[in-house]
Design brief:
3-stranded antiparallel β-sheet, alpha/beta, 9-stranded mixed β-sheet
Length: 367
């Protein structure tokens, strides 16, 4: 049977962070309960679809899924496992905010077969966490991380964020060393993006002097790779590093255009080259109106995504499938030393990674 990735969106969080432009917000327990009920109803509508697939990965993201009561996560996974055939070796991930899990919750996750947990740390410096609007301290992260290990989690990811307001190259590197020293299996290291409509956009959108310079940001990125390589982490995607065998299979599915089904508010799906996005209005979703937009991808859309998404992986992609459409562009980018080639695959060079948004956009603009 064909493999399928499942994404479950839990849009709730304790407090909206200043930089966040995700579909997430605080909500009381009553709203959370009603949301889970509707989520289960939406899953019920997939019984026909489920006959065609077996689940290879599950990712419960948000928001902060770990603020839900453990029994609600239990209900969600039980319903999924009732509807779908889930592979025995399926990767099942839940995102968690430090300070929102305890031994009981982590025990429930383990009993449910959740075998990967992703902590949104972002920084090891409490002052930086406060500026970001995070609800936890570094000490609370250490406690949550320790509890996850005690509960039996052998696959832990830690999210970190660079180029923060007031952050120096030294503080970034020190924090990275601290986290690597804990030996998580996976580290995601992203650069802060100032997104329009966020509190950070209002505060820093016209004040770039409050943020590290482009040169400092580039040096942070370069040092990230060097430091994590020294701790035994391999870079397999622009912002993701893992110990051998621990690359995130669910996210690799996105970059390789594998099929996936999304449940919950604003969740996206890609099934048989049809991309759909769920309802994004919470009031409508709670009424049971789940459907949003749907688009059948054209051949051009598919080949653009193949390059735009696949080139994020450090191993690159085989251009042979669609390369004839981009032959001149590929040669130009190679002459500019932005793309390299090895063993029949093309990939972003170090120089290309520095300007990856520019390089990847070329494959969207080429007509």
């Amino acid at each position: 049977m064909k493999g399928l990735g499942i994404y479950v969106h839990v849009p709730f969080c304790v407090r909206k962070c200043g930089y966040c432009d995700f579909l997430s917000f605080p909500a009381d327990e009553g709203v959370q309960r009603r949301y889970v009920e509707r989520l289960l109803e939406e899953m019920e509508e997939s019984r026909g679809l489920a006959l065609m697939y077996e689940v290879a990965t599950v990712f419960i993201g948000g928001g902060t899924p770990s603020i839900l009561e453990g029994r609600w996560i239990e209900e969600i996974l039980w319903r999924l496992q009732e509807i779908y055939r889930v592979r025995e070796d399926a990767e099942i991930t839940i995102e968690a905010n430090p300070g929102t899990v305890d031994a009981e919750k982590l025990g429930i996750y383990q009993a449910l077969g959740i075998n990967r947990i992703s902590f949104g740390l972002q920084s090891t410096v409490d002052a930086e966490l406060e500026r970001l609007g995070r609800i936890h301290s570094y000490g609370e992260f250490l406690e949550s991380f320790g509890l996850a290990r005690e509960a039996g989690f052998e696959n832990i990811n830690v999210d970190l964020m660079s180029a923060l307001p007031g952050q120096s190259l030294g503080s970034w590197c020190e924090g990275l060393e601290r986290v690597a020293g804990l030996l998580p299996e996976h580290i995601s290291a992203y650069s802060l993006m100032i997104e329009e409509g966020t509190d950070f956009y209002r505060r820093y959108g016209e004040h770039p002097e409050c943020l590290p310079s482009e040169d400092e940001e580039r040096r942070m990125y370069e040092q990230t790779g060097e430091i994590l390589k020294g701790w035994g982490y391999g870079q397999y995607e622009i912002s993701n590093y893992a110990r051998e065998g621990y690359a995130c299979r669910h996210n690799l599915g996105y970059w390789e255009r594998a099929e996936y089904k999304g449940y919950g508010l604003g969740a996206a799906s890609l099934l048989q080259d049809v991309r759909s996005v769920n309802q994004t209005d919470l009031k409508e979703y709670l009424k049971g109106n789940f459907a949003g937009s749907e688009e059948r991808l054209s051949e051009r859309d598919i080949r653009e995504e193949y390059f735009f998404l696949g080139l994020r992986k450090t191993e690159g992609i085989d251009p042979g499938i669609y390369g004839m459409h981009y032959e001149k562009l590929i040669k130009k980018l190679q002459m500019q030393q932005l793309l390299g080639e090895k063993d029949g695959k093309i990939f972003l060079t170090r120089k290309g990674i520095d300007v990856s948004n520019y390089v990847l956009a070329q494959f969207l603009d080429d007509r």
